[in-house]
Amino acid sequence: MKITLIREDRESGKETLSTCEADAWIDRIKTETKEEHVTRLRSMLLYTNPDSGGYYEHIDKLPRIYPSVEFGRSRDNGRKLKHYNGVVMLEVNHLAGLSEVELVKRQAALLPQTWAAFAGSSGRSVKIWVKFALPDGNLPVKEENMESFHAHAYRMAVQCYQPILPFPITLREPSMTQSCRMTLDAYPYFNRQAIPFCLEQPFGMPGEETFRQRQLTEKNPLSRLKPGYETSQTFTLLFETTLSKALNEMEEWKRDDDLQQLLVCLAEHCFKAGIPEEETVRQVMIHYFKQADETTVRTTVHNLYQECKGFGKKKSLTPEQITAFRLNEFMERRFEFRFNALTNDLEYRQRDSIHFYFKPVDQRVKNSIAMDALQEGIRVWDRDVNRYLSSNRVPLYNPVEDYLCNLGRWDGKDRVRALADLVPCNNPHWRELFYRWFLNMVAHWRGLDKLHSNSTSPLLVGAQGFRKSTYCRIILPPELRFGYTDSLDFKSKRDAELYLGRFMLINIDEFDQVSINQQGFLKHLLQKPVANLRKPYGSSIQEMRRYASFIGTSNQKDLLTDPSGSRRFICIEVTAPIDTNVTINYRQLYAQAMEAIVKGERYWFDDADEAILRETNREFEQMSPVEQLFHCYFRSPEEGEEGEYLSPMQILEHLRSKNRDIKLTASNVNHFGRILRKNNLEYKRTCKGIVYRVEKL
C-alpha cells in the first residue's frame, strides 16, 4: 500500500509529490536526516507556547504525509486521486512528553485494527492509523463513495479507540486528505497484518441520529422488540411470571381486595424483569379491568419505576429543568416518534406491543399528548410539546434506507427478470433492459450516483384492460407503496420537481397525453439528479435528494415525438393482459438488486443498450405531418446518385408549395432541422448554414 508525500515551497509556490510504500516510510522515520529538521522543530517547541506565534523557518522541508490516499499527477500537473487506502488517522495531541506518547502507542497497539502508531513531529502527539474495508475486503472505487465511507469510518474509529486511550482524541472533520508532517520516532508501532474494521458502504455522509440507530442503542433488549404477536406473547409470558411471584409474596391478597397493595409489589417485579412501563400498564388493565382505574394504575406503576431507577434524588435543578426532564422521560416512555425524511411528516406510535403502525402527528394528537402529560402531573404547555416534537429529540427516519438495510441475504433466485417476464411482449431485449433499469432505480435510492439520475423509463403500450398501471404499482413493496404516484401535473413545475424527492416511482399514466410543449420539461425532469428549491414554509433554497424513477403507460403506439432521439425510453408493446395476481417475495426481489449493486454490477445503460433502445423504439416514434410530407417528395440519395444539398428552409419552401398550411417560422425551421437529422441524412456545414443531401421524387 502506497502513501503520498507532498512538500510545498511557500516562496516559489511549487509542489513536490512522491509516493512510497508504507513499511518503507515507517523505516524512514526511525532515523533523523542530516538536516535534523524534526529535532530542531521539537527543540523550538520546548521554549514556545501555543499563543506565542512561533514559526519554524524550515517547516517546508518536512513534507506532509497522506496515509488515506495515493495521489498522482494529472495532465495539467494537478493532483489526481489514484487509489483510496481505507486508512483513518486519529490524533492524540497536547501530551506532556515521551512517557505519555509511549503510553498512547501501547494502548493503541492493543487493537488488531491498528496499522501504525507513532509520535508526531512535535513530539507531543501520537498519530494512529486504522484500517477499514468493505465486507468483501475491497474498498470503494467512486470518489463520492470514498468520502461517505471515510466519514463513517472516522466516526467508528473514534468510538472504538477513545475508551482505551488515556487522553482525548482530537476531533477533526473527516477527510481523505487529512495529513501530518514528516516525523521522527525510533520505535514506531507498525502491524503489517492489521485486521481492518468491516464497514458496509454507507448511504450518505453522517448526519443526525436516525430512528434505526436510536432503536439499536436501546439498552433493554425487550424495548427493541418490534410490536407484533410474538412480542405480545413474550411480554405476556414475562408478566404472568412476575404476577405469580407477586401473588406468592402477597399470600393473603384476594381478588376483591385493594388492588393497590398488589400493584406496588407487581410493578417492582415487572421493573426487575425488564418489562417496559407501558406494557406493564397494559397487562394490569387486561387482568384487573374491573377493579383498575387506568389513571391510578399508570401513576402507581410510573412512581415505582421512577423510584427503582433512582429518580428524584437531585434537588439542585430549576423548575424549568425539572419540567424538561420529566417531559423528555414522559415522551420516551409513552411514545415512539420519528421524522419521516421522505414525506416530511412527523409520525408516532404508542410504546406497547399492540400498536404496530406509525401514524401522522396532527393537532389532535398533540393536544392528547399534552392532556396525558398534565394528568401525570407534568406542568407543560402546548408550546413545550411542540418544541419537543420539532427538536432533535425526534430522530430522522428514512423509510427507503430502513427497508433496504433489513432485507437479509439473497437466496440466489433471479426474481428481477421474473418480474419482467410478467409482461407478455415480443421484444427479446426486455428482460435485460428491465433488469438494468431496476438496478438503476435501487442504486439511486441508495444515493450511489449523485451526478446522474435514472433517466431511462419503461413505457408499457397496450390496449385497455391489460393491467399496465397495476403492474407499475406492484413494482414497489407494500411498505414503500406510499412512494408511488400516477398523478404528475406538468403545469405546476414546482410541484413536479418536489415529486423527485417525495416519490420513489412516478407513473406517467397515459403518456400520449403529454403534449409536445411539455416534452422539454419532461426531459428536464428525467435527467435532473437533484432538485434545488425552497420547501414549503422554508426560507432558503435547498438541494433535495432525488429518489424518483419514472415509468409510463399508454394505449397509443405512436407516442414518441422528440425528434432528437428516444434513448430515454424502453418502449414495450404489451401483447396480452399482464398477470398481476402473483405472490412476489419483495425482500428477496430487492435483496437481489442490492447484492448485484454491492458486487459492482453495472446498473447504468451503456452505449450498446442505448443503441438497442433507439432501434427498438423506432416503431413507437410519431411521424409529424411535415415529416410525412417530406417523405412524399424527398428521399435520401442512393449509391451512384448525386442528389443536391438543400437547407431546411429551402426544403420547407418546396413543401409549402405543395401545402400552404406550413408556416415558415424560425421555430418550425429549427424543429424541421432536427427531423432531418433524425432521418440520418448526409449533411455538411456551409457559409449559408447546414445543408442536407436529398433527392427529389
TrEMBL record:
InterPro entries: BT4734-like_N, DUF3874, P-loop_NTPase, VapE-like_dom. Residues 409-621 form the Virulence-associated protein E-like domain. Residues 623-694 form the DUF3874 domain. It comes from the Bacteria. Keywords: ATP-binding, Helicase, Hydrolase, Nucleotide-binding. The keyword Thylakoid does not apply. GO terms for molecular function: helicase activity. Residues 58-190 form the BT4734-like N-terminal domain. The keyword S-adenosyl-L-methionine does not apply. This is Helicase. It comes from Bacteroides intestinalis.
